[in-house]
Amino acid sequence: MSDPSLLAVEGLKATYVNAITALDGVGFTLARGEILALLGANGAGKTTTLKALSNLLPAERGQITGGHIRFAGLDVTRTRPADLVRAGLVQVLEGRHCFPSLTVEENLVSGGLGRGATRREIASDLDKVYAHFPRLTEKRRILSGLTSGGEQQMTAIGRALMSRPRLLVLDEPSMGLAPIVVQDICRTLRRLNREEGLSILVAEQNAAVALRFAHRAIVLENGVTVLSGTASDLKARDDIKAFYLGHKAPGPSTSVASSPPAFAG
Amino acid sequence: MEGFDGLFFLEVLVGGLLSGVMYSLVAIGFVLIYKTSGVLNFAQGAMLLFAALTFVSLTERGISFPLAFAITFAIMVVLGITIERTVLRPLTNRPPITLFMATLGLSYVIEGAAQLIWGTQVHGLDLGIEDVPFDVSGVFISQFDLFAAAVAATLVAVLSVFFRYTRIGLGFRAVADDPFAALAVGLRLPVIWATVWAAAGLVALVAGLLWGARVGVQFSLSLVVLKALPVLVLGGFDSIPGAIVGGLLIGAAEKLAEVYLGDYFGGGIESWFAYVLALVVLLVRPAGLFGQKRVERV
Ligand SMILES: Nc1ncnc2c1ncn2[C@@H]1O[C@H](COP(=O)(O)OP(=O)(O)OP(=O)(O)O)[C@@H](O)[C@H]1O
Ligand SMILES: [Mg+2]
């Protein structure tokens, strides 16, 4: 396998409940060690794309109707979510999704269990996560449902790191967080990328944050990839500026196969 | 009521609480499965009957109690795993009502199978504990009730320790909290489901033996699930402490109502009082007394 890309998505189409078209031709590749940002307005299809990557769409009554996703030689749509995690594709879901009635540490441990790690590996990985996110150390015995939004995001990322990912997928990690917390998290992720070669795919509405953080970016509109380029190129473009400064109104977000154009924005 | 007899009241109360433990036990079987699959497992009663019937039939063939218990438990585990494989897994991502219908069908299959394998006659079950009252400083307590309560308490303690301190237990609590996140984290949901069904099978076995010793092992045994419903309504479908407290409350309320209000209604209150109580709670607190108390910051 001489394919240099870790992840390759090609002509991806997806629907929900066999009726609502959410993706209508998404394609991109991600090289090993790369940080790629996935930009787009509300309803552009970012979350749907990321769920497709972890083969989580069936659990949300979504279907992939066309295209391919390959991760490290695996055909993603034929691989169970748990096996994708073991292969190193780990996702931090939109809205964090910590287990609220588990302690912060139990949340982290659950990530290790997902990988099938031994007790010793879990212990050493916990130390690493606490080193990356010192704020979690003092909260380890607190129920995660009682911690702040930033702490929950760190818990969710820490939980994903416990699975020893090769590709970390993050869905709007900045959502609802103070800029300083976002900065903190970005710095940690970039260090992981630099020092451990962790590849990262991050979906963001906040293009300003994402383009500062990523090497390269692609832009989704109505479930279609419309642009791609290096972060510095995209930063210079007027339409992207307009987009992330909020001048451009996002178009209707989905094409609805049957009738009403609901679900927009 | 001429003159309130405190000692007598206490006796009724204790008797009620102890019989309530048996309701709790049945209810816990429901809660375990509800928490992980979001489905009210209608087959819990059939599993209870199946377990009790298997156990008696084995002992009647001369197998010792501990061995019969072990064999029956093993069968319940296999049953649980089979159910997970053949019924639940193909139905994942279907609406809860589909799953409920599936368990409804399942309960008939299990009952039918029990009938086919073990026959339809009523079996007596003697656990060697006599149902004689004994005197604790003036209050008469049934020895059997006390035994049943101790067994139930032990079972609950064992399950609590299991779910708190083991990997599978952590997985169980994670799935109960957020199944989608559990899937994304890579937890092996089938393993967790199978374990939970096995645990529910164990609960069914213990409850089946205690109830069977009390009322005989027969097909009406599967109807004790109907007694669990008001307990679940009271305690919440997703709370094990709720199931315990709910069972105790129902047990006590039922007995007290029978003794103190029975005369006004011409007796027989015990058979319906629990449902009225549940209905009242349902009106006031639809989630039950303990249900769905999510951990959330305010
Ligand atoms: N579970 C679902 N059932 C039906 N339609 C859905 C579902 N999830 C998303 N959609 C639709 O699919 C389209 C793409 O949604 P998606 O969540 O992928 O967008 P997004 O880019 O992540 O948006 P946001 O920035 O708001 O998170 C939207 O029009 C949305 O209404
Ligand atoms: Mg989204």
TrEMBL record, chain A:
GO biological process: L-amino acid transport
InterPro entries in UniProt: AAA+_ATPase, ABC_transporter-like_ATP-bd, BCAA_Transport_ATP-bd_LivF, P-loop_NTPase
Protein's UniProt keywords contain Transport: yes
UniProt keyword list: Amino-acid transport, ATP-binding, Nucleotide-binding, Transport
UniProt keyword Nucleotide-binding, yes or no: yes
One MF annotation (Gene Ontology) recorded for this entry: branched-chain amino acid transmembrane transporter activity
Domain ABC transporter: 7-247
UniProt signal peptide: none
PROSITE patterns for this protein: ABC_TRANSPORTER_2
Pfam families attached to this UniProt entry: ABC_tran
Similarity comment: Belongs to the ABC transporter superfamily.
Record protein name field: ABC transporter ATP-binding protein
Organism, scientific name: Ferranicluibacter rubi
TrEMBL record, chain B:
Membrane topology: Multi-pass membrane protein
MF term (GO), any: transmembrane transporter activity
Subcellular localization: Cell membrane
Transmembrane segments: 6-32, 39-57, 63-83, 95-118, 138-163, 195-217, 229-252, 272-291
Top-level taxon in the UniProt lineage: Bacteria
Alphabetical list of InterPro entries matching this protein: ABC_transp_permease, BCAA_transport_permease
GO biological process, one term: amino acid transport
Keywords noted in UniProt: Amino-acid transport, Cell membrane, Membrane, Transmembrane, Transmembrane helix, Transport
GO CC terms: plasma membrane
PANTHER family, sorted: ABC TRANSPORTER PERMEASE PROTEIN (PTHR11795:SF451), BRANCHED-CHAIN AMINO ACID TRANSPORT SYSTEM PERMEASE PROTEIN LIVH (PTHR11795)
Entry's family note: Belongs to the binding-protein-dependent transport system permease family. LivHM subfamily.
Protein's UniProt name: Branched-chain amino acid ABC transporter permease
